[in-house]
Design goal:
With about 425 residues, the chain is an alpha/beta fold. It has three domains: about 180 residues, FAD/NAD(P)-binding domain, CATH 3.50.50.60; about 140 residues, FAD/NAD(P)-binding domain (3-Layer(bba) Sandwich); about 55 residues, no CATH class. It contains 13 helices and 24 strands. The strands form seven sheets. The chain has a seven-stranded mixed beta sheet. Bound molecules: flavin-adenine dinucleotide (FAD). Flavin-adenine dinucleotide binds next to helix 1, strand 2, helix 2, strand 5 and helix 7.
């Protein structure tokens, strides 16, 4: 039984499906959606270079030999080897297991900032990426309908991103590229009116790639007119006004929160052992403390010791995918009475795209920037994307994007699709 069809869970399922079938065992994958989301290329779905459906892979085609159950696991009852689930219709039911793998991933880590939960937009799911894209394009339309000196026009054209890790920087860079293209078709909105602000509490952006390349990325973003506020926090976002810790306040109708992640609370709710950050406590072979040989954990939700880098593995797809593969081998070894092996992986590097043809990367110690970094990031993500079907579709999207302009269609009605029919039925 695997809980979570993400980077780690899919890695486990793909590693187990054939050997388990041969050995006469069954494999079940439970996840809240029937797709795997490849989060690393989510910014491109928001920016319009990728068709949103192409950044997800149906779980049933990715792991054909597993039974897929769509639902949310609310609690694990370890003593009875039972999962308590809520299905797609809200019905509650239970599933038993012999071996359990927990990979529920992480969710946005927020802070008690006034107004944040109401006005902030997260950037972790496909729904949020589509919502953000439509919201940003709708702000351009709104601005074009407001008089030039109306302060609400300035608010519509001000976009604030909080958190300058790779998710925030990539999302901002893609959307800024999209908006620059979109306003070519909206004569009422001028490029000088746009304001992009990147707020980061630490002293540098992209700390994952080192200050040299982070500095390059900052210069590249600044050359595009993006304001970078390091050493600054968001104090509040209320009534369409953003207040920063340096005292500045300004109107803004878009606030994107990408300031880190925290583990899904499933382990805590199940009274399984967790560390002070809420991550499942596991050993280097990814066996849960006190439940060795029965419950396993990997990915963002588990504190997997990083034997080569020290401390614990970072929450990244690069680590989660490899952990999934190692966990599958260890689980099989346990079933067959063989020795398990500890997870050992040295990060290959970090890749960050800064919009079309631009990027920064450190790969195997080699630092790259500009087009080579952007090209490498794309090639890497293509190799990692599961199934040939999705690889071909993504290559086609990228190839078409070379010949055609960005797609600026706003599909705002997606967020309230029943409204038109409801109105028609009341007439
Ligand atoms: C915008 C963005 C860009 C990123 N870019 C990169 C990058 O360039 N490189 C990189 O290495 N990493 C990147 N990451 C991080 C990377 O995507 C994550 O670290 C990785 O996906 C973690 O894998 P996981 O399997 O632990 O969790 P996930 O991939 O999040 O999968 C968890 C799965 O569990 C399911 N689930 C959760 N709770 C339950 C429950 N109670 N019951 C049933 N199912 C449940 C979820 O629906 C989901 O399918 C990025 C992340 C984001 C958001």
């Amino acid at each position: 039984m695997i809980v979570g069809g993400g980077a780690a869970g899919l890695g486990v399922a793909r590693g187990l499906q054939h050997p388990l079938r041969k050995a006469g065992h069954s494999l079940t994958l439970v996840s809240t959606e029937n797709v795997f989301l490849y989060q690393s290329i989510l910014p491109e779905a928001a920016g319009g270079t990728l068709e949103p459906r192409h950044v997800v892979v149906p779980l049933r085609t990715a792991v054909r030999r597993a039974r897929v159950v769509v639902g949310e696991v609310e609690r694990v009852e370890a003593a009875a080897r039972l999962l308590h689930l809520r299905g797609v219709d809200g019905d509650r039911f239970e599933l038993g297991y012999d071996q359990l793998v927990l990979t529920p991933g992480s969710r946005s880590r927020t802070l008690p900032v006034p107004g944040l939960s109401r006005h902030g937009i997260g950037f972790k799911s496909l729904g949020e990426a589509i919502l953000l894209r439509n919201h940003v394009l709708a702000r351009l339309e709104a601005a074009s309908q407001r008089p030039p000196r109306d302060p609400r026009r300035r608010a519509a054209l001000t976009f604030v991103f909080v958190g300058a890790g790779y998710a925030g920087v990539e999302a901002l860079a893609e959307l800024e590229d999209l908006v620059r293209w979109a306003i070519k078709h909206i004569p009422d909105v001028r490029a000088e009116e746009l304001r992009w602000v990147l707020v980061e509490a630490r002293d540098e952006i992209l700390p994952e790639i080192g200050s040299g390349l982070g500095g390059y990325a900052a210069r590249e973003l600044r050359s595009r007119g993006i304001e970078i506020r390091t050493g600054t926090r968001l104090d509040s976002v209320e009534g369409g006004v953003v207040r920063l810790s340096d005292g500045e306040t300004f109107p803004a109708e878009t606030l994107v929160w990408t300031a880190g992640v925290k583990p899904e609370p499933l382990a805590a709710l199940s009274e399984l052992p967790i560390d002070d950050m809420g991550r499942l406590r596991v050993d280097a072979a990814m066996r849960v403390d006190g439940h060795e040989g029965v419950i396993w954990g990997a990915g963002d939700a588990a504190a997997v010791p990083d034997l080569l880098g020290g401390g614990f593995c970072p929450p990244s797809a690069q680590f989660a995918t490899r952990q999934g593969k190692r966990l599958a081998s260890n689980l099989l070894a346990t079933l067959e009475g063989r020795e398990v092996e500890p997870f050992r992986f040295k990060a290959l590097g970090v890749l960050c795209s800064l919009g079309r043809y631009k990027g920064v990367a450190v790969v195997l110690g080699v630092r790259l920037r500009g087009f080579p970094a952007w090209f490498l990031a794309r090639t890497y993500h293509l190799l990692q994307l599961p199934t040939l079907n999705r690889k071909v579709r993504v290559v086609l999207d990228w190839t078409l994007a070379l010949f055609f302009p960005r797609d600026v269609a706003a599909l705002g009605s997606l967020h309230d699709p029943t409204k038109a029919f409801e109105r028609a039925s009341k007439e």
